[in-house]
Model the fold of this input.
Amino acid sequence: MKKLSIVTLLLIVSASLFAQGVPEDVAASAASRPAAIVASTSWTAAFADLGGLDDVPFIAPANLIHPPEYEIIVGDVLKINNADYFIYAGYERMMQSMGSSIKKDEASMIKINTNNSIENVREQASLIAAVMGTQAESSKRVAQYVQVVEDGARKVREQGLDQLKVYCHSMQVFLAKDLGLSVAGTFGPGPVTAAQIAEVAKGGYDLIIDNIHNPIAKPFLEVSPTTKVVVWRNFPDRGGRDSLAEMVGENIEVLLQ
Done:
């Protein structure tokens, strides 16, 4: 009953907003101001930063273990409907919860792909920048991000970590490969299987990379206790400038320790 009442309230509030007319003086003022942009999570907000945008607010709190599972409230719907653009990934629970209560046209909904590979960061930042006209600034920020990853890859080679046999969480494989790690197998995001546990038990894996937002590698340690395990993030723990580069840099430092 509680879930039904929340959805109903969202629909009522959004319908009320949609029905309200926009005075001409308000419309003129809106045309002269910078576009208001909201992102779904700290990760999509980080892509907005790389797209050349500054201090984009986001809906799901960054301190959640798994931000996409955040349950929206009425105030969140208002923020999204009052924004000129909403940047999202599509897998967020809020996208299903809000349903038709989002009163936005297709052009104002910017859907991006979230993985931290250099190739994808370039593509998604370019997509956002093309909409916002921020291509020059975006190019600078993406170059800085790429430099962080390339510096990390150099350190990986210097320490010989590229020679390790790696078993990697599927949500972290993109960065692992960009760093030059030898990913011999992947697991997740669902629970590990008996076959995967048996694979690790056979031995030979030097490193396991788990995902802090969906940690599932614990069974591997029971069958291969000497294998090193590192845990990486995908969702930055803050918003704002350089948030993705800072997070990836921290992932790299955990690996190098």
Notes: The chain has two domains: 2-138, 159-256. Residues 135-158 form the longest helix (24 residues).
